[in-house]
Amino acid sequence: MQIQEEMCGRTACTLAPEDISKSCEYKDKQGQRKCPQWRDGDCDKYQPSYNNSPRSNNPVLLSMKHFQKNADCSERVLAAMRWGLIPSWFTGTHPSKMQYNTSNCRSDTMSEKALYKGPFFKNQRCVVLADGFYEWRRQGAEKQPYFIYFPQVKSEESEARKDDSYVGGRRLLTMAGLFDCWEPPEGEDTLYSYTVITVDASKSINWIHDRMPAILDGDEEIRKWLDFGEVPAKEALKVIRPIESITCHPVSTVVNNARNNTPECVAPIILQKKEPALSASSKKMLAWLQNKSPKKEPSEEVKPVKLSQVALSHKKTSAELMHQWLKKEGEPSPKKPRR
């Protein structure tokens, strides 16, 4: 079996801060619908992007009790955290001195490894938010990127829903993560950073890669992962598993360069099917068939249809809906000017 590199290493998150808050609406213990607010100052640390890589600041959802000791564990707050966990015991002078890649952690070893068992058993659990993530499929010497996300809905369907989990017809991907807090030696602000938990890939995407993020499907799973007052660490592990309810489409290799930050990164493309090279024996057989096979009576020729020429179903796919949204949006949602 071919060993592939660890993932997930690139995401897109293009919603404006206020829209991220709306997309994370939930019911509190009194049954009231609430939109989590951004932690003080963190709204400005987050920048919408079509191409996020490790070391960037990204939106995460977590329990308010991590910041306010008198808060209930079920209350939620948004924060911008650095992608790539820096453990509290790190003795370096700067995060760049970290020698290990901590953008992902495997679910089967996170309760054992020194880097992650501290945050795990201290209930420092979070939900990493994104439009979706990128993964590359190896095809010989080449690698084809794909964008992977929750199935999208038509605008009229999203308007008919009772909640705001679909903002502008899009549902944010909710990935399970762990976070930690590091105090810089020079007395600078505390650094909050996170890692994305990964599991074996489900059948829906294991043809692209053998690993995938642990995706939380629905608010009940999010609640169980975040509410450490009711759900202890080992019990919370029950929601860490592969899921099938995701979709994907191929995208341009422009996303390969992390400096590229345009809608082209997530736009669907049509792959051109490559014909396999004929062996010497196959060429001889083809030549014989062309020269020796009996001639057929003239008839209307039926040309074979290539897979790449087959039209999409009349029913809009998630990729079409994504493409439609991209044409409408054009650029990442701008922040509202500070007053």
TrEMBL record:
GO terms for biological process: protein-DNA covalent cross-linking repair; proteolysis. It holds the Pfam family SRAP. The keyword Transcription regulation does not apply. GO terms for molecular function: lyase activity; peptidase activity; single-stranded DNA binding. Signal peptide: none annotated. Its EC number is 3.4.-.-. It is an enzyme of class 3 (hydrolase). This is Abasic site processing protein HMCES. The keyword Thylakoid does not apply. Sensor of abasic sites in single-stranded DNA (ssDNA) required to preserve genome integrity by promoting error-free repair of abasic sites. Acts as an enzyme that recognizes and binds abasic sites in ssDNA at replication forks and chemically modifies the lesion by forming a covalent cross-link with DNA: forms a stable thiazolidine linkage between a ring-opened abasic site and the alpha-amino and sulfhydryl substituents of its N-terminal catalytic cysteine residue. The HMCES DNA-protein cross-link is then either reversed or degraded. Keywords: Covalent protein-DNA linkage, DNA damage, DNA-binding, Hydrolase, Lyase, Protease. It comes from Eleutherodactylus coqui (Puerto Rican coqui). InterPro entries: SRAP (IPR003738), SRAP-like (IPR036590). It comes from the Eukaryota. Belongs to the SOS response-associated peptidase family.
